[in-house]
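Cross-posted from the bioinformatics board.
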Amino acid sequence: MPDGEGDVDAWEGRLAELLAFLRHRITGDYEVDEFGFDVELTERFLLRALRPLAESWFRIEVFGADNIPSVGGALVVSNHSGTVPLDGLMTGLVVHDHADRFLRMLAADLVFRLPFIGELARKGGATLANSEDAERMLSAGELVGVWPEGYKGIGKPFAQRYQLERFGRGGFVSAALRTGVPIVSCSVVGAEEIYPLVGNIPTLARLLDVPYFPVTPLFPWLGVLGMVPLPSKWLIEFGEPLRTDSYPEGAADDPMVVLDVTNQVRETIQKTLHSLLLQRKSAFS
Amino acid sequence: MGRVVLVTGVSRDLGGRFARCIAKDPAIERVIGLDVVPPRIDLAGVRFVRADIHHPVIAKLIDDNQVETVVHLGAIATPISAGGRTSMKEINVIATMQLLGACQQARSVQRLVVKSSARIYGSSPHDPALFVENMSPRRMPRSGFGKDAVEIEGYVRGFARRRPDVRVTTLRYANLVGPQTETLLTRYLELPIVPTVLGFDPRLQFCHVDDALGALHHSTLAGAHGTFNVAGDHVLTLVQAVRRLGRPHIGVPPFVLSSLGSLVPQLRQVDLSAEQISFLTYGRGLDTSAMRQTLGFEPRFTTPEAFDDFANGSRPGAMNPQRAAELERQMADLIAKVRTYARR
């Protein structure tokens, strides 16, 4: 049985590799970067755990992945929605699987305050959203992901779906201008329907020190079951890179330039969202 | 004429080693060591003066010896070795104030080197990944040595303003490690089972003791005016560090960790103050580009290298690399055996 023998060999090789991997982990013989990013853990576990959700549950279709630069610093700017930042995780997975790069996400401080989530976020390559970290990552040639709508975007009521909120004060544009990296817009359709936000319990939110306490048609009524995201159909499109290295010196500190570029990016994403919505037959197919 | 160097805190590990090492330098004529207790090691070539920095004798000592450089290593980071928090504060803050007061009067003083700590930045979820020297902490340290360091540096800045002719170098060290160096953090890491904060794995940075000495030496002889972070490159996470020591770790909620500190006798020698627990929760990273570019100092050890040097000198834990490699071999043998058995 030469075939069976080959199978067993491959199986044994995999097992040996797994043992070596476990030994590295148990003896602390692995590397994390200065932000706490653990490449090995991310590729082997985190992304692997997200993949079935992306492929079978949300059936994500990706457009324009070639627009993500294959090397060097770049800033991916995306809309934010879905009550829970699953859209960020899915974008990170899509970027890894379609462009072979790690998306270094800029996350809110709430993420780093939470046990387990904060730890996994750093290990998965995220860091706190601030200009110092953003510029440090961009100058180091990383692909950085930012969601400028923040809490306002992710926690907006279901009735306002696919209408972009204000893009902050354009801090992300300043970071891109200062480091001269291109901005790639990313439009995500589908995340709005995973947890349709119909209400908010401010008292509970204050008690838990979170920006909002979500009420969806299923949560908190169904408890844990209500935490299962609805299987909406997702489309993600990356736009053409917007170059920022042609602006004069000091443009990063010019509010007019910054706001102008911010609006340009925002409008690109809003337009793309509308065209993707037309393309999608219905929210769940 | 050679230079006269005054070193404070020589009876402790780093101060003693630094005084001995600088005394051998041909560029230095004389080294005067100062402390409240006699040194435990032989300070060859160092003139030891037993005095409190509080004492007015310091001003006279500086004047009489025409001290040119003052290296202030007197600040103590551990309440246990200082004999309690109150006396620690006394030693750190009041003594620094007095010493700087004495230096301000002395025209002979041309350089001041102060050992500070990265604990000045505190630790919180609002921090950037790496602190640059000019960033102020997002949350001011409200207790412990971090607060002392803030106050000490405040006095040092005041001194630098009043004596612009003096070159002042402040070194903010990451946690020190070395083969024979015992600190609160190394004591914690060497516990038989290391209790960590549940759900957090903070980033740590280390500075090898040899590099700490090197940076002091460099700042005394060459150096530059300013404040500099001193740490080895890269980071280790707490769990990674504990694993490198081959020790088991267990995650406990933070409030349990702080009460463990007072309940378990073994943990009394370990700092589990609010300041330390927030460090063990959120960690900290330092940007060291100013250390390289402005100060002109290049450490020999990266953070993982410095830590491994400490780990090699430490008692190996249950799951050391040799044991792990052996286990892996045994598992591989077992698999091979199962395979030959299955073939039959």
